[in-house]
Design brief:
By secondary structure, the chain is of the alpha/beta class. Helices cover 36% and strands 26% of the residues. Bound molecules: adenosine-5'-diphosphate.
């Protein structure tokens, strides 16, 4: 499979000296959906922030064939859509339309192309018809969908999702999983929700203490009780 993300010998320490990633090596194929699991402090968020160059460590990170560097940052960021755990960190406009249009407008697209991007992104998340609503009047599940739409409107090849199901009731959770399963983008998903991991991601990576400690089929890893317990993870 053609790799869309290639991480080689990646290590990173925060300025206070704490090592958050230690010699990570992993490749992700185009279109793969991969869960990144591990206890709090394992390095999941730190790893994600390397994918679009917000953080830069030692080693190599290549995204869509481009080495992440100051020179490639703009192109890389257009390829990698980060969806935060809390949609309220992503939504700040008075209407849903303006929030979803923000990215395409920032790229100076003409108005009809912006409208087209917004329409397609809202259709992809099942939120057509909510354009004029205030994001903070929507339910958490709906706000999560809009936050996802703000990223989809940029047409990224890769989606990086941090705890997509946290705080959702069972119905909103099921419907979000169904929606994510249908999206064609390559996905990296950090989650403590092992049912979501099971239902969405055929492949799982386990991080612990900044190290990649396992990488394999979700069905194999999640059934391995010893492995799961050793890294503070629940068996679904
Ligand atoms: P996870 O997302 O798996 O919970 P993080 O990537 O947030 O893990 O954190 C990995 C390690 O880096 C932890 O030990 C955490 O305390 C540390 N860390 C995270 N952010 C910072 C920061 N801004 N400054 C210093 N240390 C940090």
């Amino acid at each position: 499979m053609e790799p869309i993300i290639q991480i080689e010998n990646l290590s990173f320490s925060y300025p206070d000296g704490r090592q958050a990633l230690a010699d990570i090596n992993v490749q992700i194929g185009r279109g793969e959906k991969v869960a990144v699991v591990g206890p709090n402090g394992a390095g999941k968020s730190t790893l994600f922030l390397h994918l679009n160059g917000i953080l830069r460590g030692e080693g190599r990170v290549r995204v869509a064939g481009l080495e992440v560097s100051a020179r490639t940052m703009r192109t890389v960021r257009a390829q990698v859509g980060l969806v935060f755990q809390d949609p309220d960190d992503q939504l700040f406009s008075p209407t849903v339309f303006e929030d979803v249009a923000f990215g395409p407008l920032h790229l100076s697209y003409p108005p009809d192309k912006v409208r087209d991007r917004v329409a397609r992104a809202l259709a992809a998340v099942g939120m057509v018809g909510h354009e004029e609503q205030m994001p903070h009047h929507l339910s958490l599940g709906e706000r999560k969908r809009i936050a996802l739409a703000t990223v989809l409107a940029m047409d990224p090849a890769i989606l990086v999702l941090d705890e997509p199901s946290s705080g959702l009731d069972p119905r909103a959770r099921r419907s979000l999983i169904g929606l994510l399963r249908q999206l064609p983008q390559t996905m990296l998903v950090a989650s403590h929700d092992m049912r979501l991991v099971w239902d969405l991601c055929p492949r799982t990576i386990i991080l612990d203490g900044g190290r990649l400690v396992a990488d394999g089929p979700t069905a194999t890893l999640l059934r391995d009780e010893t492995l799961m317990n050793r890294h503070g993870l629940e068996v679904p």
